[in-house]
Amino acid sequence: MAVEHYENFPVASFLLPHQFRRPVALIYRFAREADDFADEGDAPDHVRLAQLEHFVRELSNIETGQPPGIAWFAELATIIREHHLPLDAFRDLLSAFSQDVTKKRYADYNEVLDYCSRSANPVGRLLLTLYGKTTPQNLAYSDAICSSLQLINFWQDVAIDYRMGRIYLPQDEMARYGVTEQQIANADAGGNWQSLMLFQVARTRQRLHAGTPLGRILEGRIGLEMRMIIAGGDRILSKLAGIGGDVFSRRPALRWFDWPLMMLRSL
């Protein structure tokens, strides 16, 4: 699995118990390929939306017991049936990626969180269903973690997203800090840019830490994997803070030397 390609959910797959590896790989393949329809290449918007709609129809085929038109969806259908995975979680992902094609600005933080609730949270909910751990509290913890990972990805990729025509920073908060779109276009980390980004980092870290009990609730290797994921998100937030949010000069990401530290903290 190309973890770096669908970076919102870095999976330390070697930690997963064997019986979960193939189902998790299929869930991530679905998310990654749908995300690619919205982001990759130079296809016009109507083609991207048609590709996503094709996945919507394939989910309907699974729901009604019809044979899939995409070969690997047959295996996806099997794991959905075997583990009682909610189809609405897959549909929410497609809704978010379709939104990426049509919506390029977010008026406020609530709009951003609404997007996260469909682009990120469904993956965590699917995994908890797979693990048989879907208590209301666990789902709330998972949502906090997954939304945080999505937000972290946004703050890492301000420059990259801008080149694709998108800004996920809330427009009202940009105005409050006196940061303009032209400043992003100019890759200018001056003025109040640092203050705006450090505010985002602090708020995202608070949300991430709100979900940390899940890493202790989940048992064994899946609990360790969850703690690794949380540690990874926290590590990137520290790197963002360390560069004052200047993602124009350097995009903070996990390196090989971060993993031993993350493992130590997770243990």
User: In terms of per-residue confidence, which ranges show pLDDT below 50 for 5 or more consecutive residues?
Assistant: 1-6
Shape estimate: globular
Distance N to C terminus: 25 Å
Secondary structure: helix percent: 55-70%
Total beta strands: 0
The radius of gyration over CA amounts to 19 Å
Q: How is the main sheet built? A: none
Q: Report the mean per-residue pLDDT as an integer.
A: 91
Portion in strands:
under 5%
- The run of helices and strands is HHHHHHHHHHHHHH
**Helix-and-strand structural type:** mainly alpha
Describe the 3D structure.
The chain is mostly helical and 267 residues long. The protein is built from 14 helices and no strands. Helix 1 packs antiparallel against helix 6 and helix 6 (121-131) packs antiparallel against helix 7. The radius of gyration is 19 Å and the shape is globular.
